[in-house]
Specification:
The protein has 15 helices and 13 strands. The protein has 2 domains: 212 residues, Glycogen Phosphorylase B (Rossmann fold, 3-Layer(aba) Sandwich), CATH 3.40.50.2000; 176 residues, Glycogen Phosphorylase B (Rossmann fold), CATH 3.40.50. Strand 12, helix 12 and strand 13 form a beta-alpha-beta unit. Strands 3-2-1-4-5-6-7 form a 7-stranded parallel sheet, with helices on both faces. Helix 1 crosses helix 15. The protein has 395 residues and is α/β, with parallel strands linked by helices.
Length: 395
């Protein structure tokens, strides 16, 4: 197949959940002899023969008031118009068998309209709630007229959607009023290199890893306070906080919390780590702390932790319980609940702990291995039936 993959931004070096997944998908599809062209916004077109960084993006804003400003509306319309015709021209020149859409927030929805207009097969990969919002715009008053204009032009019929979790599928059905038969739940896949050898007989030191953006909605402050509470209860747990820094004031708040808890000796801020370094750290950690406060669409780091043998302590938000199942601990996103969950695991016997980690590994291998999941994605892109992920499920 010839596949045109459209995504906000794409980079071979910068890491983010969707970018990482897109890289894995492209590599897997190319290994299966498909030709993939990436259409995106970004500076990397000269370094990648299969990346056409031709689209423009809207500059992100922090103040919601800016989104309602006339200047921002004009920018949105100009970017939308340009990206519509760029996408249309790229489709006509490249001649893909399928247009494979990922995140579009910053490049507007016009590439999607352009794809529908060419009559090509279109598959949407729903990493978040963007696509359900496209079809629910009519239900909400006060939307920007320019935004609403493009949203209402998108048909519901003849579109296939890959949802990365049942949590996303539920929103697409309830809020987007989409036909369940056209929504395919295919979990995010992780590459073979992410998996350990499956031997969990060796005990691990009391180390925990937080590996997400250092932002309030990801709950870094909860992980810090939870480890401090566990340590006050007599459990010497070390914590590494790794991830791209968010707002400077929030990062400063987290570091001040560590200082106030007298926790500098057992809490380390290491900044963003390479993906391989994250895997290496997970293999040396007893816990992954995933205290997300928002409705997490999937949580790739949780699946990777399970593949590396770290026990996931995650919040009961969004798809996190769906990913972890009964192979970790899912609790309220509070410091007290996370501290209690860690202590509960520490107090387990050796055989019980080994079984928990082994079950998590098997779940990751069964549900999240890219080598399996790419077959289902390939089938959706080609319009063929496939064995649904639910048929592979491990409880």
């Amino acid at each position: 197949m010839k596949i045109l993959l459209v995504q906000n931004f794409y980079s071979i070096s910068i890491s983010g959940g969707t970018t990482i997944l897109c890289r894995d998908l492209i590599q897997s599809l190319e290994k299966r002899n498909h030709e993939v062209l990436v259409l995106c916004a970004g500076p990397e077109k000269k370094r990648n023969k299969n990346v056409a960084a031709l689209l423009r993006h809207i500059n992100p804003v922090d103040d919601p008031k800016e989104l309602r400003a006339i200047k921002k509306r004009i920018e949105w319309l100009c970017v939308s118009r340009r990206n519509y015709f760029i996408t249309q021209r790229t489709i006509n020149l490249f001649g893909p068998d399928v247009v494979y859409m990922h995140n579009l927030e910053w490049i507007t929805n016009s590439p999607l309209l352009a794809a529908f207009g060419t009559g090509k097969r279109v598959v949407l990969h729903a990493h978040n709630h963007l696509y359900e919002e496209l079809w629910s715009a009519k239900k909400h008053k006060g939307k920007q007229l320019s935004n609403l204009f493009f949203k209402t032009g998108i048909p519901r019929r003849n579109v296939e959607i890959i949802a990365i979790s049942k949590s996303i599928e539920k929103g697409l059905i309830q809020n987007g009023s989409l036909d369940k038969a056209r929504i395919h739940v295919i979990y995010n896949g992780i590459p073979k290199a992410a998996f350990s050898n499956g031997d969990f007989s060796m005990a691990r030191p009391l180390r925990a890893l937080y590996a997400s953006a250092i932002s309030p909605h990801k709950g870094a402050h909860i992980a810090i306070e939870a480890v401090a509470l566990a340590n006050k209860s007599g459990f010497a747990i070390e914590l590494e906080v790794a991830g791209f820094p968010g707002a400077p004031e929030y990062v400063a708040r987290c570091k001040k919390m560590a200082a106030d808890f007298n926790a500098e000796v057992f809490i380390k801020f290491s900044g963003p780590l390479s993906r391989e370094k994250v895997w290496e750290t997970l293999a040396e950690s007893k816990f992954l702390l995933f205290p997300s406060l928002w409705e997490e669409p999937f949580g790739l780091i949780a699946a990777e932790a399970m593949a590396r043998g770290a026990v996931v302590i995650g919040s009961n938000r969004g798809a996190i319980p769906e990913v972890i199942g009964n192979c970790g601990k899912c609790v309220e996103p509070s410091a007290e609940a996370f501290a209690a969950a860690m202590i509960e695991v520490i107090k387990m016997g050796k055989s019980e702990t080994m079984q928990l980690r082994s079950n998590a590994y098997k779940r990751a291998e069964t549900m999240f291995a890219m080598e399996k999941n790419i077959l289902a994605i390939e089938a959706v892109l080609d319009g063929r039936p496939y064995s649904k992920i639910s048929d592979w499920r491990v409880q």
